[in-house]
Amino acid sequence: MKVLSVCGLAAVLVAWAGCASSKSSSSWTPTGDALVDGRAAISQGPAKDRVVWQYRTALAGLRRGQYAEAKALLDDAILTIGGINANDKEAKKSRSLFSEESRKTFRGEPYERVMAYYYRGILYWMDGEPDNARACFRSAQFQDSDTENKQYASDYVLLDYLDGLATVKLAGDGSDALKRAQAVSKSGPLPPYNPKANTLFFLEFGVGPTKHATGDYAEQLRFRTSQSVVRSALIKIDGVTIQTSPFDDLSFQATTRGGRVMDHVLANKAVFKTSTDVVGNVALVSGAVLAQNRHTQEAGLGLLAFGLVSKIVSATTTPAADTRSWSNLPQYLSFAAVELPPGPHVATVEFLDVRGQVLPSLTKTANINTTPTRDTVVFVSDQSHTTKTL
Question: Considering the domain boundaries, does residue 20 fall inside one?
Fold first, then answer.
């Protein structure tokens, strides 16, 4: 009876493993258009993947000048980020031995959450709300504060720099934020704040990090990074040329994020999976030997059943890392501020390679109109098709 009971349990586990491994097919067909596909994935895809698609689609919209859509998507994603410590049943399941981490609601690694707040801050500043923009930049820096190695905690240059600039714009003292930014800057002295600079250029270029898994059971989260062809940019406006270098490198931010609780959970899952697999092998071999002798047959059958259960438990343990990622992020972030007289202006942004040579195919032109009442914000990406009239 004991043997039958164990075998019955094994059968249940086999069935459970089959159910757990089944994958549902996508309910939408990709078209190759980032906005169209993103909207479809958000409305028709799994709820657990909603945020990653909101991230990607918001950035695609921002690069096309569809700012209202980008704001709505980021606002919704940020609500989810804000509930990161709330009770998430799928997050709890992903910590169990038999559930995948990718089952949990996606919120992203620290650098991904940082960028959601960063882009929302830009959009607030576009709307003439530097106070809300500053709040976003501060929230973004907080998202980077949970790294295991505190050497790399809250070390974005541009976030502190923009915090201080917004403070200056609001008639405050931004010197402390400027000092923090300078302390972590790797590109030399930062430009001093000019309260009269009324045109702000937010630049981005290069291809950002993506995720992949390594290890015997794909339990180790790793990042793929590539060196950007673009290394700097020139802004030309009203006969003035401004050269900008990267303030921040997202590949660096991703790879210095430090450990997470989930990293340790996945390591423990991998150890458990190996141990149960080895125990199962030993039990199966020993059981097969004992089952051949009628005096030890019952014990042998019991070991065989135990070995089978152990192997099934090993097979259903899922330590694989979650490799969903905000896949259209840039590598570099840059910024420049200039004072212009009220009225229309034409700005040209040229992207330069490592030798300082212009990459003509990436040049962007923006028609902007400055006013005496609020700052004009220009967002330019090397991945944008065009820039919008502002």
Answer: no
| Closest to 288 measured CA to CA, from 311, 306, 309 | 306
pTM for the model: 0.76
Query: What is the span of the domain harbouring residue 145?
Result: 26-263+321-381
* pLDDT tens string 348-368: 999 999 999 999 999 999 999
* Domain of residue 202, CATH code: 1.25.40.10
* Tally of domains within the chain: 1
309 belongs to a structural domain: no
Determine the 3-state secondary structure of 75 from DSSP. Answer: helix
Q: Of 13, 14, 6, 43, which Cα lies nearest the Cα of 26?
A: 43
Residue 316: inside a domain: no
| Residue 94 belongs to some domain of the structure | yes
Residue 270 is predicted with a pLDDT of: 39
Quickly count: other Cβ atoms within 10 Å of residue 188's Cβ: 7
Helices (H), the chain: 2-21, 34-44, 50-63, 67-82, 89-94, 110-126, 130-143, 157-169, 175-184, 250-255, 261-291, 297-316
pLDDT tens, position by position, 224-276? 888 899 999 999 999 999 999 999 999 998 888 644 443 443 344 334 345 54
Give the 3-state secondary structure of 109-159: CHHHHHHHHHHHHHHHHHCCCHHHHHHHHHHHHHHHHHCCCHHHCCCCHHH
| Residue (of 226, 214, 216, 201) closest to 337 by Cα position | 201
